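Revision sheet: structure tokens.
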Amino acid sequence: MSPKNTSNLNIVVAGASGRMGQSLIRLINETDGVRLSGALDRSGSPMIGQDASELAGIKQSGILISDNISETLKLADCLLDFTTPEATLNHLEWSAQAGIVHVIGTTGFSTEQEAEIIPFTDRAIIIKSGNMSLGVNLLSGLVKKAAEALAAEDFDIEIVEMHHKHKVDAPSGTALLLGEAAAAGRNIDLESNSERGRDGITGARQTGAIGFASLRGGSVVGEHSVIFAGEGERITLTHQADDRNIFSRGALKAARWGYGKKPGLYSMLDVLGLND
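Predicted:
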């Protein structure tokens, strides 16, 4: 790990030209104890060479967006990464080499890609979550408890999520996080007990399955509902995100929490003390 900076935590933002990247840069600018030390974007991006802070709508910082990750991470304490699975796996090569905190908010990983993360956990402090907000992680705990209490024979579980029209993966990482919580509550494997993309004559719903429905449109930041549907009654647990800053604040909290920790794979439940 890089030497401790006694005044500021040096943070690099990957995907600096994207919605989340710009949100992170603005929040870093407003937050004491952290500083933007670098900004990354994909090779060939037209944003390479632009001032990262100016692009985010704030005063110039002199930090130019780069595609040179090895140089950008030299003085970094943490990498905040809300990009794509392929980009994140490439970034892990470098964050592990540097031994820094790598906060991963990227979603859409395949099972095979998830497995590719594990070898890096002996060198990097990796904090990964399908959603960085406090509210969603509290919701996941409630979902797990409800799934434990409500038997599969009596209550079906459906997860409905909606995001803006530009989101490329479905179900969302948050929906899958909530699905995993429900599956854990019932002590089942989510992958082999989920139903997605129903269309046409699908037959009756399987008892114990966890259903997913993904809606896309407009500028919706994120809405997630977990429905426990029984005979004659329904229980709905819902989280609505109105401001992208809730994810940025969670990512910064994770960065600070992770600095100085031992290498390994952590989640926001660890950051928030909900795994105790």
